[in-house]
Design brief:
Elements (H helix, E strand, L loop, with lengths): L9 H5 L2 H30 L5 H31 L2 H19 L5 H15 L2 H12 L5 H13 L1 H11 L2 H18 L7 H7 L10 H4 L1 H12 L2 H11 L2 H8 L7 H26 L2 H19 L7 H14 L3 H10 L6 H30 L1 H22 L15
Helix pairs in contact: 2-3, 2-4, 2-5, 2-6, 2-7, 2-8, 2-9, 3-4, 3-5, 3-19, 4-5, 4-6, 4-9, 6-7, 6-18, 6-19, 7-15, 7-18, 8-15, 12-19, 12-20, 13-19, 13-20, 15-16, 15-17, 16-17, 16-20, 18-19, 19-20
Length: 413
Amino acid sequence: MTTTPTRSSPWKILLNPAVVIASLGYFVDIYDLVLFSIVRVPSLTALGLQGTELLSKGLLLINIQMVGMLIGGIFWGILGDKKGRISILFGSIILYSVANIANGFVTSVEMYAVLRFLAGIGLAGELGAGITLVAEILPKETRGYGTMIVATIGIMGAILANIVAKQFDWTTAYFIGGGLGLALLLLRIGVFESGMFAATKEKDVSRGDFLSLFTNKDRFLRYAQCVFIGSPTWFIVGILVTLAPEFAAALGVQGKIDGGNAVAYCYAGLALGDFASGMMSQLLKSRKKTMLFFLLLNFACVLIYMSLHGMSADAFYLFISFLGFSSGYWAIFVTIAAEQFGTNLRATVATTVPNFARGSLVLISLLFVTLKPIYGITTSGLIVGAICTSIALIALYFMSETFGKDLDYIETT
C-alpha cells in the first residue's frame, strides 16, 4: 500500500506523485471543459454560422457535451471501481485529448457535435478519479490538503484557456489543450494504484454497481445529498457568469462585458475559494461547517450581484471573481462525496456526482428560462438562486460529517 506518513506537512503532500498528477490532470481537464464556451463564436463563425445560429447551435453543442459527460461519468466511475483508479486517469485523458485535437479539424456542426460528445465522455472521469486516488492514498487527517491542492491547481486551467484563446486561433487552442493532455501520459506512468482498492479487489465483493446507489434508501439519500450540495456552483457558473453580458446590460453596467473574461475572472475566484475552503475544512476539522459557510456566502454574493446597478465594467469583473470565490467549494464537495461511500463504490460516486451536479444545470436553465419572461432576468436569477441554495442547505443538514473518517471499508448490499 502506498501511503504518506501521518504527520506529513502540506508541502510534503504537495510533492506526492498522486497529488501532482491528479492536479495537472484536472488542470488540463478544466482547460478543455471551458474552452468551447470561450471559442464558441469564432469556431462556429468559421463554420459559416451567424446571427441567432451562434447561440442556438452553441447551446446544442454544450448540451451534447453535457450528455457525454453524464454518460462518461457513469462509465468511468464503474470502470474505476472494477479495474482501478489508474485506469480512469489513463483512459479518460487519452480520449478527451485526442477528441480535442480533432476539434481543431472540424468542418461541420455535425462533426463538431460528435467530437464534443466524445470529449465530454473523456472529460467526465478526471476529477473523480483524481480525488478518489488522493483520498485513499493520503492519511485521513491530511487528505483534505491533497484534494484542496488538486482543485486549486486544476481550476486555473480555465484561466490558461482564456489566455490561449485570446493569443491564438481557436484551432490552435484546441491543439494546445490536446497536446498538454497527451504530455501528461508520460508523467502518469510512475503513479501507483490505491492500496485500499488493491485490497478490496482481492475480496469477494461487488464493485462499481451503479444501480445499487438507487436500490438502497440510505445509499440513495446519501448520493442525492452529494449532488444537491454541488448544484449552486453550476447556477453561478452556468447562469450568472455565462450570461454575465446579459445581466450587465440589465443592471446598466458601464462598458462592455466579455463572456470569456467573465469566465476567467470567475475561475480565478474559484481557485482561491477552493484553496480557502480546503484549508478551512482542515483547520475547523469539519467539512459540514465549511460547506455551510460557503453556501451562505454564495447566496449573499448572489443578492449583491443583482444590485450592482450602474457600476463600471472593471468593478463588475472584480465582483464576478467574488462570485467565483464563494462558489469555490468544489474540492470539499467532491471530497465529501468520496468520503460518504465505501471503497467498492467510491470511484463510481466521486466520478458521477460532479457530473450529475453539472447536469443539474439543464434543469436550472429550464427554470430560469421559464421565469425570465415573467419576472425579468434579475428577479428570475434571485428566485432560482434561492431555490438552489435552499435545496443544498437542506441536503447538507442531513449529511453526516466525514472529516477524518476511515475510508477503508466497503458498502454491503
